Structures are given as C-alpha cells and as structure tokens.
Amino acid sequence: MGLTETPQWLIPAFVRSVKAIGATAGTEEIQAVGAALVESWRSPDRYHHALRHLIDVLASIDQLAEETHDPDVVRIAAWYHGAEFAADRRTAFAHKGGEDPMRGAARAREELPRLGVPEETVARIAELQEQMHRHSAAAKDLDAQALCDADLAGLAADPQRYAEYRRNVRAEYAHIEPATYLEARIAILRKLASRPRIFASPMAQDWEEPARQNLTAELDLLESELAELEEAEHAESERAAAAHAAESGTRSGAEAGETESDETAGEESDDAESTRGDGARGEEAGRGERAGRGEGVPGGGREAQDGPDDATQERHDVARRSIREIPKDSRGSGDHGGRGLPTPEYDGGDGFSTLTRIPRFPSRP
C-alpha cells in the first residue's frame, strides 16, 4: 500500500491508543514512533503482511473489543506484532519467515518506555505478542485470544478476497521454488485445519465455518498443483534419462563400430601379411627350383645344365695352370709376384671373386 493510501486516521488512532495505555510523551513524539511503524509495515518485500493487513487486524480487534480486558493494549500489541518481517530464503527455510512477533515484542520493549508507557503495560504488550508466535493463546487469556483471532480473521474472508490473500502470500515467497512453497503452505494449512477450533475467542466463532471452507478449497487447489508439478518433474526426469540412455547407446555403438573396424582391419592386415608371406615363400621356392635348373641365377642357364663350352673350359684350364705356377708362399701374400695375377681376394659386395670374376652362388637362406 503506497503512502497516499495510508488512511489519515491511522496515526492519530495510534496516538490515542498509546495515550490510553499511560504514555506521557508529547503528541509529536508519539506520532514519530507511529510513522516509523507505518514505514516498517510498508516495506517493499511485503504483499500480504503489509499495511492493509495491519488495518484489517485493527478492524477485527474492534469487532472483538467487547470481550477484551484492555482493547487499547491489544491494539498496540497489534501494531508491533508484525512490525518486524522477513521473507528471505534463509529465514524461510529456518521456519522463521513472515511476521516476527518475538522481534516485534523486543521493539515494543525498546520504544514504548521512551514514550512514558508504564513498564508493566509494556511487559503485557510483549507477552501478548509472544503468545502470537504460534497462535497458541492461553485458554484464559481473552486479550491474547482476541489478538490471535484478529490476526487469523482473513481466513474467513469472502472467496474473492481470500483469493487475493492467497496471491499476496505467494508473492511474498516468489523467490522460493514452487514445490518447496507448496509443500510448506500445505503443511501450514493442514495444521490449521486439524485444530478442533481455528478461533479461540467466543465472538470469533462466526468466522469458523467460512474459514474452514476457504482452507479446504485452498488445500485442494495446492495439492492438485503440487501433484501436477511432481508429475511434470517425473516426466522431465524420464525424458532426461531416456536421452542419456540414447546418447550412451549411440556412443557405445560408435565405439563398438570402431572396435569392429579395427578388428577387421587387423584381420585384413593379417590376411595380407599371410598372402605376402605365402607369396614370398612361393617365390623363394620358385627361385630354389629354378636354381636347381640353373634358371634366374647369375652364372646359371645352359652353362649350369650342360657344363661349360670348349672356349670357357680352355680359359679355366689356363687359369688353373697359372695358379700352379705361382709360388706357394706368394699366393696369399697380397703382392703381385709370379705371373702378375691378383690374389684370390673377395670383393665382398657383388657376389663375385676378384680372382676370376666367376660368379659365386650365394648360400641359400
């Protein structure tokens, strides 16, 4: 509620109640305290527990005033009961979110004595707020019962007003995950609905039936919403799991294909190597067979099959006679004595002897 929407009567009403409970401070000083309280109720994080809620509580106290011992004490307790408020994530998850009557009581203990309110009255105001902590007013404390009932009176609002109340409560906790909020709100409403009586004071009993109807309707709505949310989350989880399984299967198939390809390539390589080995062995056997026939070997052919012709045989005979004519002590000396023929030295590189350049058959492997 904006500043222009603050009723003109609100702060004057605060001043009257404070003076009624024994304050001795001047009007301006009391007005300053009242204005600070209004600003607290108008903090931007409030939607339901805002200034309008304070006005509604004060109006409900007026309806129950006849059964209270000191209605102005109850009214000032109402001003402070929600002056301190928190809806942040930390306090919400610690179950300390929303109005904080305990801190409100501490604020009343600090401010009211400065206005000259008697200490016993200040203590009574703080005690009333402390009983609001869990809406558990003492059975014989009519003032505490009236204050708690006035705070819960919004539960008995007409359906349209109650729908607005629900939206405003949700807006205060918009930063909380939907499922978390729904579960917490359902727990609170179930606890209220499980009470033998929602309202304790005699004059508030007319609010009982409409409040239960609103609670039942909201519970049905929230439970249905939570079920749909859980179903959607379950479906999303299944889709994510299926996508993961499909991705894993594709990856496994690709890896299996790579492995099969590698194995096939290895088998093909082994087959090629085997073919090459068989070919090499066949070629070697062929060479051996041709060598046996004098084919494909240096110095082979017809000379190896039929023996040397007459001219070649004559050259061989001359060479042997020349060797016999070389002195034995000079044949392996490496000099060029005798008939000037070189010593039978192995060339070592082309398979020929330097003595006769007659091809030598390489040893078979």
Describe the model.
It is a single chain. Helices cover 62% and strands 1% of the residues. It is mostly helical and 365 residues long. It has a two-stranded antiparallel ribbon with strand order 1-2. The longest helix is centred in the C-terminal third of the chain and has 86 residues, at 208-293.
Main attributes?
mainly alpha, 2 strands, elongated, two-stranded antiparallel sheet, 365 residues
Topology, element by element:
Elements: H1 10-20, H2 27-41, H3 51-64, H4 71-81, E1 85-86, H5 89-93, E2 98-99, H6 101-111, H7 119-131, H8 142-152, H9 159-172, H10 178-193, H11 208-293, H12 302-306, H13 310-325
Antiparallel strand pairs: 1-2
Helix pairs in contact: 1-2, 1-4, 3-4, 3-8, 4-7, 4-8, 6-7, 10-11
In short:
This protein is 62% helix and 1% strand. It is an all-alpha fold and 365 residues long.
Structural class: mainly alpha
Radius of gyration: 56 Å
> Element order, helices and strands?
HHHHEHEHHHHHHHH
Low-confidence stretches: 288-307, 322-365
The number of helical segments is 13
Q: In what order do the strands lie side by side in the largest sheet?
A: 1-2
Shape: elongated
Report, as a whole number of angstroms, the end-to-end distance: 108 Å
**Share of helical residues:** 55-70%
Strand content: under 5%
| Sheet of most strands | 2 strands, antiparallel
How many E-type strands? 2
> Taking all residues together, what is the mean pLDDT?
78
